[in-house]
């Protein structure tokens, strides 16, 4: 899985249109609907991408009955054309998967997303290249072709770590490859791309295609942000905090199970999504499970300094219209002790 598309600069406009069109009745109806099949409340959670090991805890919580224990019948759905952020912020669904950069960008544009949990404690993304391209540090990007999705954020990230290493982004050929497969693009058009190692990097290992990996967190603490995160919207928190509480109790159980039982958790994901490659899911889950919690006191814990550091970095790079109100962007209040 290559790095997913960054925050759309048109998202605020899209959300205004959605709010006008649907009147926030999506999540509101789900939250307020007291008719429960088999005493369970139907709730949707939307993924940010096609199912992968970032999402395993949700599938475990559903399969193991953790959601049902909390009175919920949870449906895991794929994002629509506007993406998961639009669906959650507009109230179409109450919960979804996002990334810290999208929440940060969106909130400064009036988008009411709130992060409930860090799915992974540290940023496992970075710039990957085949070893034969001899890209061993950011300065080595010079003279090479980069494949991305044309976001100002990705260019700012690349520029930032290149400058730390004494390089210049002006010497990089920037190509927009959209959602093209990394392994196809790297053989055809580009020398390096931004990936999540837990999926694309592990797939490269299985293909015996050796990579040089340049992790963002190795070059700046400000780039060790939370990606992905589990989000809701302000209205759901205000109207039904109990729903948020029980959803997070069950989700936490799902991810903690995946931490303790990676192979069994991988089997749950494969059962739910049988089209996934079994070898890749197994290897990815074993690599990723310890990183869900890592050095945090509990799964999902978010630190204010991580949110502040990244928003400061975005402000420094001219990527925010106004400063982020950090304390409203995330909450740990719904994580079980």
Automatic annotation (TrEMBL):
Stored Gene3D superfamilies: Periplasmic binding protein-like II (3.40.190.10)
**What InterPro entries has UniProt attached to this entry?**
NMT1/THI5, SsuA/THI5
Pfam families, per database record: NMT1
Kindly list the biological process annotations in GO that this record carries: thiamine biosynthetic process
Describe the location of the SsuA/THI5-like domain by residue ranges.
Answer: 52-265
Q: What span is annotated as the signal peptide, if there is one?
A: 1-27
Task: Kindly indicate whether the keyword Signal belongs to this entry.
Answer: yes
Keywords assigned: Signal
Q: Does the keyword Cell cycle apply?
A: no
Stated name of the protein: ABC-type nitrate/sulfonate/bicarbonate transport system substrate-binding protein
According to its UniProt entry, this protein's organism is: Fontibacillus solani
Q: Highest lineage ranks of the organism?
A: Bacteria, Bacillati, Bacillota, Bacilli, Bacillales
